[in-house]
Amino acid sequence: MSRFIQLHLLTTYPPSNPNRDDLGRPKTARFGNAERMRISSQALKRAVRISDAFRKGLDGNLGERTQRLGRIVMEYLRQQGADEQKALEIARQIAEVFGKLKKEKDANPADIEQLAFISPEEKRFALELAEKALAGEELPDKKELAKRILRRADGAADIAMFGRMLADNPDYNREAAVQIAHAITTNQVHVEDDYYTAVDDLKAPSEDAGAGFIGELGFGSGVFYIYACINRDLLGDNLDGDEELANAAIAALVEALATSSPDGKKNSFAHGGRAEYIMAEKGDQQPRTLAGAFLQPVRDQDLMNASVQRLEQFREEMDKAYGQCADEIATMHVGHSGTLDDIKAFCTS
Fold first, then answer.
1. Domain containing 117: what range?
2. What pLDDT does residue 200 have?
3. What are φ and ψ of residue 291, in 5° steps?
4. Is residue 237 part of a domain?
5. Is the pLDDT of residue 148 over 90?
6. 71 in the same domain as 48
7. Which DSSP string corresponds to 24-56?
């Protein structure tokens, strides 16, 4: 079975602002000395993780990224009859395994300072140990407690794919089996500003005719190139050798990348779209992005088809220069050939 699966997607975004910068404008990047709209890797991963396709496809095998495990432990112990102080004491000992604790005078002293990815199995072990502590069993020191709770591999598919870092327990870090690049438009983009107003419905006609609110909102549009690479061997290792779950994770990831988008200003622009072109590759060769196909911005009235042609041509040119860069390839092009199910089957076979 091939070690690497590479995904190249082209998705149209109409006028929208799916991923905002610190000023509230669409994120951008200069590429090929031209401004492009950009969607960060983090925003894409978040969109994947919360998508229906991902959650339904991996139900029961998803972790939680949170600071609040200690609160969960406290609530569980209170349900078992613990008083507030005892529940907090145990919860802080358990939560500290995942990161630095907030100060005791904090509004939520059972929380940790960082977000930590916690698998269902680790959460279960944490609650079991907390219950034993409530029954009178002494909890071990922090190092031993980590051994009893943390796992280097288990059934949390999202942690297996996107990795995690535990600063205080680096032995239980997980290297991400999936890399997702920042998405950029194949075309040059000029971010525009929408000047808008809101009217007070209860304002009487006798009052001034001015708006109740005035605002500005940046937006842009284009065809985004999205690239992802799956290290299948590492994914299997992170899932403790569960090949069936690894295939389910790959299929869920493919569908989520093709059908989900970040939620930034989605109510204002309704920019939800689906990939119109997907190229999937399998092989043991060193992975490579095909973003270089768009160093020169695509300028064409038929922007999608021109982007597809540019991508396929660049892939062929890379193969001519370096030799075959992947052993197998499958494509889906809306209105031309292939289906999403075909791509999922190809990636999991």
1. 65-155
2. 78
3. -60, -25
4. yes
5. yes
6. no
7. SSBPEEEETTEEEEEE-HHHHHHHHHHSHHHHH
